[in-house]
Amino acid sequence: MNHETTDLTPNTLARLVVDALERTAFVLADPCDDPEQLPPADTFARIEFRGPTDGCVELLASRSFARNLAASILGADASDVSDLQSEEALRELANIVGGSVITALGGSDCRFSLGLPQLGRAEAAGDDTACILDAEGARLEVHCHRARAA
Q1: φ, ψ dihedrals at 69, nearest 5°
Q2: What is the number of H-type helices and E-type strands within the chain?
Q3: CA distance 108 to 95
Q4: Which of 25, 65, 99, 142 holds its CA 20 to 30 A away from the CA of 136?
C-alpha cells in the first residue's frame, strides 16, 4: 500500500473550506482577490494532525466571520451571539476542516489522526498551504502547516 501523502494546493484547500462552510453552516465564501479589503483576523483556532506527516490546520478569522458562523450554526441573529459561542463555532470549523484536510492528504488509505481543536495561533514551521476567503465581507484565512520531511 502507498502511504505517501498527496499534495495540497491553495485551490484545493479553498475548495475544502468552502464545501465545509456550505455543508455545515450554510455560509457562502469565495477565494479573495483583494485581502486588504477584508477586516483583519483577530480570532484564531487550530487543530493538529499526526500521520505520515505531522502538522496543523490553522484558522484566522475576523470577529465578524466567527460571529456570523456561530449565528448560522445556532440559527440565531449575529447580534445575539456571544464571544464564547463565536470561538466555539470557529473551533468546530477547525475540526471539520482538519478532517477534510487529512482525508485529502491521506486519500483512501488515510493514516492520520486529529487532535482536539484549540483557540490561539499555531507555532508552525515547515511547508504552508494557505487560502484567504471572503465570506460576505468577513475574513477567513486558512493555513495548513506541515512539517518538512527529514
Answers
A1: -60, -50
A2: 3, 7
A3: 20
A4: 99
Q: Report yes or no: 45 and 90 within 8 Å, Cβ to Cβ.
A: yes
- The predicted model scores a pTM of 0.90
Q: What is the average pLDDT value for the chain, to the nearest integer?
A: 90
**Domains of the chain (ranges plus CATH)?**
13-146 (3.40.1550.10)
SS3 state at 14: helix
Strand, helix or coil for residue 140: strand
What residues contact residue 108 under an 8 Å CB cut-off, 6+ apart? none
Q: pLDDT tens across 116-129, in order?
A: 999 998 876 668 89
pLDDT digits (tens, 9 = 90+) for 131-147: 999 999 999 999 999 98
DSSP annotation of 132 = E
Non-local (6+) Cβ contacts of 60 within 8 A are 41, 43, 44, 121, 139, 140, 141, 142, 143
